[in-house]
Amino acid sequence: MGAADAIRVAIVGSMMLLVFAVGLRSKPADALYLLRRPALLARSVLAMNLIYPVLVGLLVAAFAFRPAVEIGLIGLSVSPILPFLPRKQLTLTRNGQFTIGLFVATALLAPLLVTGTMLLIETLDIVERHVPAGRVAWIVTATVLLPLTAGLLVRRSWPRVAGRIQSATRIVAAAMLLAALVPLLIVQGPSMWALLGDGTLLAIVVATLLGLAVGHAMGGPQPEDRSVLALATAARHPAVAVAVGAASFPEQDLMPAAVLLAVLMSFLASAPYVAWRKRVYRELRAASRRASLNRAH
Question: Which end of the chain is more exposed for a tag (fewer CB within 10 A), N or C?
């Protein structure tokens, strides 16, 4: 196994451990939260697996981006939620059940949803490059569905064990991810630099803003739900995108660099939105405390 293969395995493995850790912390009520709210689930699925991927596909089709950039953006738009995103989302809401429930529901449905989205993109003939839907379903099942199911089963069967190993699992996963990202950035740095220009950075920023706007609009009347769905729509699983692209287009050596560049720029582009929603959350908490004090008096 070469260095590049070892880095890829470490990244995928760390992401699988992060998904497993989410399963370990998910109570049955959290896991079933969204499945018991079909209207909110339907809006979430429409935002993440229909509207956003189609908009990204139209963006890619409208401009002559490099093939690696096209594959990276499309792959990210159809991938499941970023595994470590729930911890970030929990800082923006009092209702952690929607955050965990959204991750669990979309992960459990991921093979079906991702396959359906890819078939839709192929049917609409939005882009010239197509990723086999069956291959996507297998990758999503292996890297997201199986580790999440394992975590949920451990939590249900041995809740004390799940509680004890949850933090350790997350720490190990984070250490693996950091250990892999440092050499990856060094190795892929020149390739990422080569992708700059030709509107690539603007396309990534626009794709991020589209995801935030779609999720925010479809989140419903609750401000906190809007924040959670916006971030979930814009921030997707890079390991799945890289695995799908590498399996389907092995000749595209720049594709991992394109995905990494998209993820990094997406975090920067979403920072103003996160700051705004944190301010909204603080105002909501302050209003709730004032209302509680008024009721007490």
Answer: C
